Amino acid sequence: MKKEFKVVFKPDNKTVKVERGTTVLDTATSSDIYIDSICGGRGKCGKCKVLIEGNVQSDETDLLTAEEKAGGYFLACLARVAGNLKVTVPKESRVESHQILMKSVTPLPAIDPPVLKVPLSLTPPSLADYVSDLDRVTHALRNLDMGHVTIGLPTLKKISRVLRDNQWNVNVTLMDLWDRKEIIDIGPPSDNDLIGIAVDIGTTTIVVELVDLTTGRVIDARSNYNKQVVYGEDVLSRVMYTEEHDDGLSKLTSTIRYGINDLIRELVIENNVRYERICRVVLSGNTVMMHLFYGLDPKYIRHEPYIPVMSFAPQMKAVKLDLSVNPNAYIYALPCRSSYVGGDVTADIIASGMSDNKDISLLIDVGTNGEVVLGNDTFLVSCSCSAGPAFEGGEVEFGVRAMNGAIERVWINDGLVEYSTIGNEKAKGICGSGLIELIAELFSNGVIDRTGKIQLDKNNVRTEVGSNGNQFIVAFKEDTAIDKNIVMTDVDIQNILRTKAAVYASCNVLLKTFGYKFGDLCNVFIAGSFGNYLDTKKAITIGLLPDLPLDTFKFIGNGALGGARMVLLSRDLQDKAAEIVENMTHIELSVSSMFFKEFTSALFIPHTELDQFPHIATRVYT
Fold first, then answer.
1. How far is Cα 357 from Cα 377, in angstroms, rounded to an integer?
2. How many CA atoms lie within 13 A of 383 on its CB side?
3. 150 vs 21, 120, 158, 171, 191, CA distance in Å?
4. Quick check: 101 and 531 in contact, CB under 8 A?
5. Which of 74, 117, 179, 620 is the most exposed place for a label (fewest CB within 10 A)?
6. Would you state the pLDDT for residue 322?
7. DSSP-assigned states of every residue in 432-491
8. pLDDT of 22-48, one tens digit each?
């Protein structure tokens, strides 16, 4: 048996005992202390820096400076417990509360969910009428034109008691399946609530809505970050984690289910709702998240020809998926089009309404993966690109997620730098919207050129040479929460330009493949939390978005959640989701020579071909 040692985490004051050889990162996670680990604990991102006092064994890394190593800093993923430890987790290494988008701009559909409550007033049995309890219920339902009715064993076990406790006056909850109706619950006449849940399983965050299926009203909502982030920032890192650890898949599956159930528990307690009242759940998420939720091996998604286990998940009961709702409630997941165009995109399309409109529209959803859809009511075509984690805080030295203390807005006027942070706290780093605004402001003020190179200026105290080339000081250390200058480096800018180039090139490839130009677009729908906080003008300035009139851009907020809610309320939209996926063409950019050409052209600010950005070109030429 391996010897155990005591690990104390500061400033949390949590103590845990673990076996020798356990990584500090795994030890922290087991203590519900979440340390940033974008690469999934593979020693490649350098975000999990911690200060350790005590005996550890650690692999060598060049992601720590000599000063940091001398000061007792280690990467938590590479440091293994070899004695009693005291571990201090600094603010910049923590996964803290996020700015999570919960709102969506979606219409209320015609309410017709595939679940209904039917009141029954039954004649009690007698010696002359000795029909079984179940037959008595099903006969009454058939008399109401309910057709073929079945029942599961858990509901069957309580039917006799419920009928007699309520003097044969009950409410029966039925799920309308394609070939039958199933009794999923039976309760007293007062049990007339019909409640469902819409869930957005994002790579970074989870949002759960409690919805009245009779009126369509959102009763309440809760959100949190997806605690899978400790196993990797992006979906590929998490897939690799499942391949490299025997228990990797089970860990990721239990983590996501626990996260959803935790939010459901909050909603149930705060709104005085019984779990049994929740009789339908609709999930939205990318293809990898769906695999991890269902416990399906996602490894073939990562390897050519990139094939998922499934695109259409069969409806199954909550009891089989460990969800804290009525155990007989059916779970429906919005279908995925490909390995990297998932059910969240299907939900975005439904939320935007683009598939019901004759106008040509473009839908853009940017996260660690970027998805783009072009089309209207006669055709839809999709593609995805590896946008990378830059807009989520990865690959940028002082990049952070959208959490309290993240710089989210930046202005530079006559050399004076101003910024605002989420929560109005002292700056800890820069999140996605802040990165875009900063680069746009640096470019507009001549601090960087069209290649993104920082121009050193002896009269500007904010430009200097750093360990990663030239750098620009955004916030001086006395104004930050981390006691360090927050800087933007040449390397950071190149990583961000690669991300914006991938998104813009994806849009261009779809348009050119089908003979369209940006000017042909009537709408550009921007979905997701990143888009919601985006300054459109500045996104155009750096070449992330096309140079179009500002009223072309429509922000639909959390379309993945909004689309899931619409499907929750409408069986027609559930059918529509399947139709969208079945009829949508998919373009694989990884084998497209056009994409690589467009990507290279888009690496400049705003673009190599300035005629694509006429309003920005006037600024460049003058």
1. 5
2. 24
3. 54, 16, 15, 16, 21
4. no
5. 179
6. 95
7. HHHHHHHHHHHHHTTSB-TT--B---TT-TTEEEETTEEEEEEE-GGGBSSSS-EEEEHH
8. 889 888 887 778 787 767 677 877 888
> Is there a contact between 167 and 122 (Cβ–Cβ < 8 Å)?
no
Q: Phi and psi of 343, rounded to 5°?
A: -65, -25
Distance of alpha carbon 332 from alpha carbon 315, whole angstroms: 5
Residues facing 206 on adjacent strands: 201, 224
Nearest-angstrom CA–CA distance, 148 and 126:
26
Segment 160-168 mean pLDDT: 96
**CA separation for the pair 362, 465 (Å, rounded):** 41
List of residues 6+ apart from 197 with CB closer than 8 A: 208, 209, 210, 211, 264, 267, 278, 280, 281, 282, 325, 568
- Whether the Cβ atoms of residue 78 and residue 57 lie closer than 8 Å to each other: no
* Nearest residue to 288 via CA among 341, 209, 362, 214: 341
pLDDT at 407 (0 to 100):
95
Alpha-carbon gap, residue 589 to 383, rounded angstroms: 7
Burial 291-315 (b: 16+ CB within 10 A, else e): bbbbebebeebeeeeeebeebebeb
pTM above 0.85, yes or no: yes
d(CA 66, CA 69): 5
- Rounded Cα distance between 127 and 125, Å, is 7
- Enter the tokens of residue 497: 């330009």
Query: Dihedral sign, CA of 44, 48, 52, 54?
Result: negative
Residues 65 and 71: their CA atoms lie apart, in Å, by 10
Buried b (16+ CB within 10 A) or exposed e, 76-100: bbbbbbbeebebbbbbbbbbbebbb
Q: Could you write out the three-class secondary structure of 366-406?
A: ECCCEEEEEECCCCEEEEEECCCCHHHCCCCCCECCCECCE
Q: What percent of the chain has pLDDT over 70?
A: 97
Q: Which residue has the higher pLDDT, 55 or 362?
A: 362
Q: Give 591's strand partners.
A: none
pLDDT digits (tens, 9 = 90+) for 352-370: 999 999 999 999 998 777 8
* Euclidean distance between CA atoms 243 and 302, whole angstroms: 10
Give the Å distances, CA to CA, from 10 to 6, 7, 33, 54, 477. 13, 10, 10, 14, 22
Q: Tokens at residue 426, please?
A: 């002292």
- pLDDT of 213 reads 96
Identity of residue 120 = L
Alpha carbon distance 60, 508 (integer Å) = 43
Residue 293 and residue 249 in contact, taking contact as beta carbons nearer than 8 Å: no
C-alpha span between 360 and 355 (Å, rounded): 10
Bridge pairing between strands 429-430 and 463-466: unpaired
> Using an 8 Å Cβ cutoff, are 330 and 175 in contact?
yes
Statement: residue 102 has pLDDT above 70: no
Mapping DSSP to helix (H, G, I), strand (E, B) and coil, where does residue 31 land?
coil
Determine the straight-line distance between the first and last CA of the chain, rounded to whole angstroms: 73
Q: What was the pLDDT predicted at 58?
A: 86
DSSP category for residue 429: E
Please list the alpha-helical segments (H only) found in 216-312: 235-244, 248-270, 287-294, 299-302
Instruction: Look at 381 and 104; give whichever has higher pLDDT.
Output: 381
Cβ contacts of 282 within 8 Å, gap of 6 or more: 196, 197, 198, 199, 331, 332, 333, 334, 564, 565, 567, 568
